[in-house]
Amino acid sequence: MLRFDFASDFSEGLAAVRIGDRYAYIDRTGKEVITIDPSFDGVSAFSEGRALVRVNDVCGYIDRTGAVVIPPQFPGANAFANGLAAVRTGSRYGYINLAGEMAIEPQFTLNSDFSEGVAAVKLDESYGYIDPQGKWAIEPQFEDAWSFSESRAVVRIAGQPGYIDRTSAIVIPSSFDGAFSFSEGLGRIRKGSIWGFLDVTGATAIAPKFDFASDFSQGLAAVLVGSQWGYANPQGEIAIAPQFSFAADFASGLAAVTLNGQIGYIDRTGKIAIKPQFTQAGSFAGGFAWVKLDSNWHFIDPEGNFLT
After folding, report:
1. How far apart are CA 86 and CA 186, in angstroms?
2. In this structure, which of 20, 39, 225, 246 has its CB flanked by the most CB atoms within 10 Å?
3. Measured between alpha carbons, how far is 54 from 73 in angstroms, rounded to an integer?
4. What Pfam families does this protein's entry cite (predicted)?
5. What would the 3-class secondary structure string for the chain be?
6. What pLDDT is recorded for position 230?
7. Cα distances (Å, whole numbers) of residue 74 to 92, 95, 114, 122
8. Per-residue confidence (pLDDT) for residue 97, from 0 to 100
9. CB-based contact 14:25 (threshold 8 Å)
10. pLDDT tens for each residue of 183-231
């Protein structure tokens, strides 16, 4: 089976790996298809045909041939989303296009990736949202702002979190201490130290009762009950009994869980699908999940077979 000194998720058919002191990308057969200049200090997953590379603390981008198409020059940079990537030049943030041209001039004190056609940005002390042309879609007015998900975004006003829609109207006023993005029609909220979920109207879908909760993925949410993790369904019922030291989100019908100090994968019924044997493990993406066994990194398929 293939062994690496580091491995990351597959994205757009490729996965970044480290072999000794150099990085490379492999395809889904395990073949090395992009060899990275050994002087590069780090690489990222591909997004929209571009991958971040880092050298001497500045970032640039390569294409799928491995050619540097945007030379390393940015102290900070994100992956491309909707044709634009958030970058930092000096102390201000802006956006570049796929050609590396500055599409939205650096002017923000913080920014985020585009999602649902807008991006949350901070100008001086207030957050608002811009469109891909850099025009204000929602004028700066919030103490904090998150990306839109399922037509809702978390914002903070007067220290309290709530949800807005794309018109900037407060559609779910604050009645909680913490709020998080919607996933599969439900948004995580926290009251005190207890977690529950709202629906998109703001009605309580699952009354706060968990010691922690993750977002819903493939119909289940990992929840902490006491010191053990299990999974709840959208009705708030325990679907998989708390029994794990840790539990991750579902992807491709499987979720990584920690049992007796080792990590394996369960299916959506709670049955062990891949026996616990790993010291680290990722979620399935592009048909494979990276895992660490002893001191080596590998890839496995949903049946638990190693990529060879």
Report:
1. 28
2. 225
3. 9
4. WG_beta_rep (PF14903)
5. CCCECEEEEEECCEEEEEECCEEEEECCCCCEEEECCCCCCEEEEEECCEEEEEECCEEEEECCCCCEEEEEEECEECCCECCEEEEEECCEEEEEECCCCEEEEEEECEECCCECCEEEEEECCEEEEECCCCCEEEEEEECEECCCECCEEEEEECCEEEEECCCCCEEECCCCCEEEEEECCEEEEEECCEEEEEECCCCEEEEEEECEEEEEECCEEEEEECCEEEEECCCCCEEEEEEECEEEEEECCEEEEEECCEEEEECCCCCEEEEEEECEECCCECCEEEEEECCEEEEECCCCCECC
6. 98
7. 11, 11, 19, 19
8. 98
9. yes
10. 999 999 999 999 999 999 999 999 999 999 999 999 999 999 999 999 9
Cα separation, 167 vs 142, whole angstroms: 14
Would you state the pLDDT for residue 193?
97
Rounded percentage of the chain residues whose pLDDT exceeds 90: 100
Half-sphere exposure of 95 (CA within 13 A, CB side): 25
Look at residue 170 in the predicted model and tell me its pLDDT.
Answer: 97
Distance separating alpha carbons of residues 162 and 174, to the nearest angstrom: 5
Q: What stretches in the chain show pLDDT beneath 70?
A: none
CA angle 97, 101, 105 (to 5 degrees): 90
Is the Cβ–Cβ distance between 77 and 88 less than 8 Å?
Answer: yes
Q: What pLDDT does 277 receive?
A: 98
Residue 112: per-residue pLDDT: 98
Total count of residues recorded for the chain: 308
